[in-house]
Automatic annotation (TrEMBL):
InterPro entries: Glyco_trans_1 (IPR001296), Glyco_trans_4-like_N (IPR028098), Glycosyltransferase_grp1 (IPR050194)
This protein's record includes keyword Glycosyltransferase: yes
Presence of the UniProt keyword Glycosyltransferase in the record: yes
Source organism of the structure: Labedella populi
Protein name from the UniProt record: D-inositol 3-phosphate glycosyltransferase
A GO molecular function held by the record: glycosyltransferase activity
Glycosyl transferase family domain mapped to chain residues: 197-351
Domain Glycosyltransferase subfamily 4-like N-terminal positions: 10-189
GO process annotations (BP): carbohydrate derivative biosynthetic process
A Pfam match: Glyco_transf_4
């Protein structure tokens, strides 16, 4: 598996690769990860991730200065490294999880050697440009070039996947590819603990990278528009380049005592944060799936999310939460109020609906589907979304 981001990085793509790799190890497969080194130390060694031990090839990397933590392997030598690793390991299949650097090198060299390539797309060039220093007037041409490169590399794969149908449609539209499989990142819902205890306080939770496309500023502004009697508190879990700006915004709005920034936390602390929360908020406009939203649903939380990209696949308006127009502070505040003022029976109904909807994203289904792709077997796309009517029928 090749990835440009892998733990200790904290983001959806890194978590997907980690969980998929660990699940495959537990099923008896030998898994090698190729990823940038997380520090100056580079080389090949055994690492334990998500409770499973795998071989990780850490490539020499440099810090990408416009980003607060991202490190990247050197493009100029990636083909040489990819060829060396493939010749040493001689894998049955290569799974590229980024077509930028590491996945590009592995895909090109695997194709030369007749090794099956499976590719999963987790990124949109539009998001990557935010962390570049190119002038705005050049970005249109850069985007067209980037999508062309995406098509070039993904075309080397026997099968291309992405987490949701909407993300697959978006990828096909911008690259000209066809037959992209929507396969959920998957989640082990049993790891999370829903709470149906009567609420004694109103806790709003956000989990994710603290960056511009997440539109956390919209959430903070919405907090200030909530009725005072709710005395709602907002917890932001995650780190990123916008943390200081958002702290200043909370201070300017007089909300500093009601907004807490937890930074990066352990898995146990994260699960506890979900269990304690009343509602999960995801104002982002760039989610190809949103593992954090899936974790919130597995924790039995109602979700208020932007009606953008893949989030409507997870949040069914009026059933397990509400959707709002991206960037609309007033509408977000109104939808949060709907949840926080909901009667206990209505709140529990939304919580139960989240638990039902998340069943379609079982990690074992994801693992089995990728195993079939790795073997070159035809797959029936797994159901990645349960419609509200179906959920009620199954209940």
């Amino acid at each position: 598996m090749g990835a440009d981001t892998f733990p200790p990085n904290v983001n959806g793509a890194a978590r997907f690769v980690e969980r998929l790799a660990a699940g495959l190890v537990r099923r008896g497969h030998t898994v090698h990860i190729v990823a940038p080194a997380a520090s100056r130390k580079h080389g090949t060694w055994q690492e334990t991730h998500d409770g499973a031990t795998m071989t990780v090839h850490r490539l020499f990397s440099l810090r990408w200065l416009p980003h607060d933590w991202l490190r990247f392997a050197l493009p100029i030598v990636i083909q040489r490294h990819a060829a060396r690793i493939l010749d040493e390991v001689q894998p049955d299949v290569v799974h590229s999880n980024s077509h930028l650097i590491v996945g590009r090198g592995l895909s090109v060299q695997a194709a030369k050697r007749g090794i099956r390539v499976i590719a999963t797309n987790h990124i949109m060039p539009e998001n990557m440009i935010e962390f570049t220093v190119v002038p705005k007037w050049t970005r249109g041409a850069l985007l067209r070039w980037a999508w062309g490169q995406t098509n070039k590399i993904l075309s080397l794969a026997e099968s291309v996947t992405t987490p949701t149908r909407r993300a697959a449609d978006f990828l096909e539209k911008n690259t000209g590819l066809s037959g992209v499989h929507p396969i959920s990142c998957g989640i082990d819902a049993g790891l999370y603990t829903p709470s149906f205890e009567p609420r004694t306080e109103n806790r709003i939770l956000f989990v994710g990278r603290v960056t511009g496309e997440k539109q956390i500023d919209v959430l903070i502004r919405a907090l200030g528009r909530l009725p005072q009697h709710l005395d709602a508190r907002l917890t932001i879990v995650g780190g990123g380049d916008q943390k200081r700006n958002l702290e200043l915004l909370a201070e300017q709005l007089g909300l500093a005592d009601r907004v807490s920034f937890s930074g990066y936390v352990t898995e146990e602390e994260l699960r506890e944060s979900y269990t304690r929360a009343t509602v999960f908020a995801m104002p982002s406009i760039a989610e190809l799936q949103s593992i954090a939203t899936m974790e919130a649903m597995a924790s039995g939380l109602p979700v208020v999310a932007a009606d953008a990209m893949a989030l409507p696949h997870l949040v069914h308006d009026g059933d397990n939460g509400y959707l709002f127009t991206p960037g609309d502070v007033e509408e977000l505040a109104s939808r949060l109020t709907d949840v926080l003022e909901a009667a206990p029976e209505r709140l529990n109904a939304m919580k139960n609906e989240s638990l039902r909807l998340i069943q379609a994203h079982d990690i074992n289904r994801t693992l089995s589907t990728f195993e079939s792709l790795y073997r070159g077997q035809p797959v029936t796309e797994p159901v990645s979304e349960i419609h509200p009517e179906q959920a009620r029928d199954e209940a």
